[in-house]
Amino acid sequence: MDRNVGGEVIESIAGENLISLRDLSQRAIVEILDTAEAFVEVNTRAIKKVPTLKGRVVASLFFEESTRTRLSFETAAKRLSADVLSLAVASSSVKKGESLRDTIATIDALGIDAVVMRHSASGAPEQVSRFVPHVRVINAGDGQHQHPTQGLLDVFTIRQVLAERHGTTGRESGCELFSGLKVLIVGDLRHSRVARSDVMAYTTLGATVRVCAPGTLLPVDVSQWPVEVVYDFDESLAWADVVGVLRLQKERGTGSLVPSLGEFTRTHGLTWERAQRLSPSTLITHPGPMNRGVEIDSRVADLDVALMERQVANGVPIRMSVLYLSLAGRAPERSTDE
Amino acid sequence: MSSDIVISGGTVIHATSTERADVLIRDGRVVDVGVDLDRPAGATIIDASECWVGPGFVDLHTHLREPGREEAETVESGARAAAMGGYSAVVAMPNTEPAIDNAMVAQYVLDRGREAVVDVAVAGAITVGRRGEHLAEIAEMAALGVRLFTDDGTGVQNPLVMRRALTYARPLGVRLAQHCEDEALAAGGVMNEGEVSSRLGLSGRPAIAEEVMVQRDIELVRLTGCPLHFLHLSTARSIAMVAAARAEGLPVTCEVAPHHLLLDDRACEEFDALFKVHPPLRTVGDVAAARAALRDGRIDAVATDHAPHAPELKEMSFDDAPAGMLGLEHAASITLDVLGDDPLRLFEVLSRGPSRVAQLRGSDERPRHSAHGGDVRAGEDANLVVFDPRTTYTVDREKLQSRAVNTPYDGRAFVGRTRALVVRGAVRVSEGSLL
Fold first, then answer.
1. Of chain A's two ends, which shows fewer C-beta atoms within 10 Å, N or C?
2. What is the spatial distance between Cα B126 and Cα B122, in angstroms, rounded to a whole number?
3. Beta bridge partners of B81
4. Residue B313's closest chain A neighbor by CA?
5. Would you call A4 an interface residue with chain B, using a CB distance cutoff of 8 Å?
6. Residues A155 and A88 in one domain
7. Using 50, 70 and 90 to split pLDDT, how confident is the model at A91?
8. Per-residue pLDDT tens for B248-299?
9. Which residues of A touch B284 (CB under 8 A)?
10. Do A144 and B193 touch (CB under 8 A)?
11. Based on the structure, what is the number of domains in chain A?
């Protein structure tokens, strides 16, 4: 998984689409994180709203239902004062015969500036970006391809926590806290768009990544990824500064790729016993929704080092940042007070 | 006589030699081949200077979509595309709706073919409804002149059914043809399994899905002795296995599709469903292997797998869009790109080889079509192409003859195209345009 084979590296998403983290340079990612940090403050105000995108129209187009991601994006858009068109078109209700082009053309006819799009088919946002080149496309997760804002909010959350520990701010630290950081990503990598985005985000910022999964849940091209592959979860517990637990995607046929959920938990679940063998400072992330008792033990999920609630909270400023940069077409002024 | 045609000033491509000669055609047959032939009064003169003159191309693998999918292609429109590609005959694949799995549907397509600008032969299905369960009425279709049988679009998955089909077909003097993909191993994938598919998050159809069925069928041919043709081989290993089986003397033949000679799986990187096809576009190494095998004689035919689909279907997501791409109008250019200045081999893989596989040579005691892929000499049926190997052109999908426009080559420049085509003694293409 070399960076962006055959494509251009994007140095800033200002005015651009966000389809894949493979396309982004370190500079572009840091710009998004720094911009998000400024928006964190907005979310603590009594009036949680800035007029930045007033008059702009953002369509949220979810062909695959995801209440959490949709709420997060729509909240972000509203806090930027954009108008939000929320269109629920879960795959089951879209007539099989309707082409992506027809669907997006209909929505485009309503007059939109950006579309936030979730689809069960890999590549659908990129296809749509060709059909409506004048509309900014933000990928909210496509098939088994990419989930760029999840990858961004994961590294944002890690940077935030590490900066607090070092008595500094994320913005001041840039990406220096990722240098030498050891990240272990474990679970269903084969089907995971989150893993594909996380690996690019962490490695672009300078972290070292190990991945661990049963053989049948590893991607076929994992040897091309900028990661080390390990098969024994237990041997890497003490190594990790961060453990990224992935959701076991039972709906994608994972059930037939491992003998049983019980065996998966015993070999690759972050059980209470395994959590005891982590360094006390090791951070734990999970993109949600969790299968408690499968890939992560319920008590482990409630530890202080488990950052799931922070991840969800940080989803809003990250998505504000992405929408702002993509739609405003420029990096923000130092202050977001307008 | 007004029916006389003189193809003048070209290089005639025989099976093993070439010759600067004119060709005189009268009443549907070649009547003379020689230097500076007299031009009978009123004869139609076809200028073949700088061109190769040889037997019209034969496509073993054309999806004409009729009956059932006439919005994508008809026998009439597909035949026009074939004519522009230099084909004097095509074999219509049976995955229509309903499938060509009985004599009545076969006769319907043959009848439609009689009105078309090129000869249309038919391949029948091996099993009823192409479902891979019960044998279709192969003997009744064979009695109509059908010589090739396949469930193409899918392979016969059950090895017992395939064994029975081969055993049943052998005494009938027909050939079976297999679309080799084990569906269990293909696992619903949408592109070649590999580095690219995993990066894109698209599910893969691995090379092994093709290769295990190729090897299974080689063993079944060894067991039954029935001739078998391997459709659109796409992997280096598949080609090597068939070559080894042939070297052992087994009655196997094989084809490659033009897209597998030109495009690799990186073409899918932008998620454009125009590049979705089964078997999928493979790796750079597989493309190189297919090109080498085409040059050195291990491949019997280039066959288009011309697969028209209505535009809206190709504008769905990569997962949902149907597989297949157009091929008839540009296959000869791609073949020329591989073979370069080797007209003997080009006419072998585009005309003589496929004609042998489809049994269109006319030696059949029940000729249902005029003969294709034969020698260019007096007495032969006049099915001839005048191919210009120097002309450069750019593909414009708005100007294709097919009803559908799902070409993966729009905007691409190619060298070599049909200048003229004669089918059953009638000029169908002249000066590069359909008459």
1. C
2. 13
3. none
4. A99
5. no
6. no
7. low
8. 999 999 999 999 999 999 999 999 999 999 999 999 999 999 999 999 999 9
9. none
10. no
11. 2
A225 with A142, same domain: the answer is no
Q: Is A8 on the interface with B (CB under 8 A)?
A: no
Percent of chain A clearing pLDDT 90 (strictly above): 79
- From CA B182, how far away is CA B179, in angstroms rounded? 9
- B197 touches A: beta carbon within 8 Å: yes
Write the DSSP symbol of residue B232: S
Q: Which one of B197, B199, B275, B312 would you mutate to disrupt binding with A, by most A Cβ within 10 Å of its Cβ? A: B199
Q: Identify the domain containing residue A167 by its residue range.
A: 148-312
Asked if A133 and A154 sit in the same domain, the reply is: no
Q: Is B333 exposed, middle or buried (0-12, 13-18, 19+ CB in 10 A)?
A: buried
Is B366 buried (19+), middle (13-18) or exposed (0-12) by CB count in 10 A? Answer: exposed
A37 and A103, same domain (yes or no): yes
CA angle, A266 then A269 then A270, to 5° = 125
Task: Tell me, yes or no, whether A8 lies in a domain.
Answer: no
**Spatial contact of A3 and A22, defined as CB atoms under 8 Å apart:** yes
Ordered domains of chain B (ranges, CATH): 5-53+376-434 (2.30.40.10), 56-358 (3.20.20.140)
In a domain, A77, yes or no: yes
Mean pLDDT over the full length of chain B: 96
The whole-number pLDDT of residue A336 equals 46
Average pLDDT over residues B352-370: 77
**B37 touches B6 (CB < 8 A):** yes
In a domain, A289, yes or no: yes
Q: How far apart are CA B322 and CA B309, in angstroms?
A: 8
* pLDDT over 80 at A335, yes or no: no
Q: What value of ipTM does the predicted structure carry?
A: 0.83
Q: Is A145 in Cβ contact with B194 (below 8 Å)?
A: no
Do residue A176 and residue A298 come from a single domain?
yes
Contacts of B110 (CB under 8 A, 6+ apart): B120, B122, B144, B145, B368
User: Measured between alpha carbons, how far is B372 from A282 in angstroms, rounded to an integer?
Assistant: 74
pLDDT digits (tens, 9 = 90+) for B5-42: 999 999 999 999 999 999 999 999 999 999 999 999 99
B318 touches chain A (CB under 8 A): yes
Q: Is the pLDDT reported for residue A337 higher than 70?
A: no
What band does A331 get if pLDDT is binned at 50, 70 and 90?
low
**A35 and A136 fall within a common domain:** yes
Sort out which chain A residues have CB atoms less than 8 A from B320's CB and list them: 96, 121
Query: How do the residues of chain A divide into helix, strand and coil, expressed in percent and rounded to 5?
Result: 45, 15, 40
pLDDT interval class at A97 (50, 70, 90) = low
Whether A47 and A103 share a structural domain: yes
d(CA A245, CA A249): 12
Residues A157, A112 share a domain:
no
Q: Is B381 annotated as catalytic?
A: no
For residues A8-32, average pLDDT: 95
DSSP state of B270: G
Decide: helix, strand or coil at residue A34: helix
B270 close to B326: Cβ distance less than 8 angstroms: no
Q: Is residue A54 part of a domain?
A: yes
Q: Which two tokens stand for residue A272?
A: 């209470």
Tell me the CATH number at A119: 3.40.50.1370
* Closest by Cβ to B193, choosing from A146, A193, A220: A220
| CA–CA gap between residue B216 and residue A92 (Å, rounded) | 39
Residue B144, number of CB atoms within 10 A of its CB: 15
Half-sphere exposure of B245 (CA within 13 A, CB side): 27
Stated as kind and residue range, the H or E segment containing A330 is: none
For CA atoms B315, B320, B326, B331, the dihedral sign is positive
CA–CA gap between residue B59 and residue B82 (Å, rounded): 8
Alpha-carbon gap, residue B101 to B123, rounded angstroms: 9
Once rounded to an integer, what is the mean pLDDT over residues A243-255? 81
